Model the fold of this input.
Amino acid sequence: MIRAGTFRLSALVAAQGGSHPVARTFSVGVLLIVVFAVYWFMARGWRHRAARQIDIAELPEMPDHVEGAAAPVSGVYVSTTGEGGWLDRIVTHGLGVRSEASMTVAPDGVHIERIGAPGLFIPSYAVRGVRLERGMPGKIGLRPEELLVITWQHGEHVLQSGFRPRHSADREVLLKQVDAIRPIGGDAA
Done:
């Protein structure tokens, strides 16, 4: 019975040379509901993740003046994750927001100025290691060793922040600069 009705509707649509207005309206309505539901679940998941990460303290403040800094390197701030939880993106304090950024390495630490998101300052005493990776949440499937990942101590948490320089020549330069400010005895990442 349903097949016969569906066939008649299909035949009617074909005879009119397009889709039936009721069918088109219904399809658009269903699509809008599905899109709304996806965004609602994504926002809900983001809020739940932020609630689970409430114990992460406020981030160190970005110093007003930077002395002895290398030239800033433009690129993309990818994300910050917890150590050992490769897919556990940290969303509190704006750390989960991917954005265009510039990174400056100075004796006092790593300065990441982000466009459309709060800046991130990683004090040199907190740096535990730096390495090149293939990817992390927010940017996966890169060519090998295209992403600079800084491991750093923040209170009781060990975090990993990713930055992808715009020019490949800057990767090794940043790696050496960040490694040079890492405290002696800091763990290699």
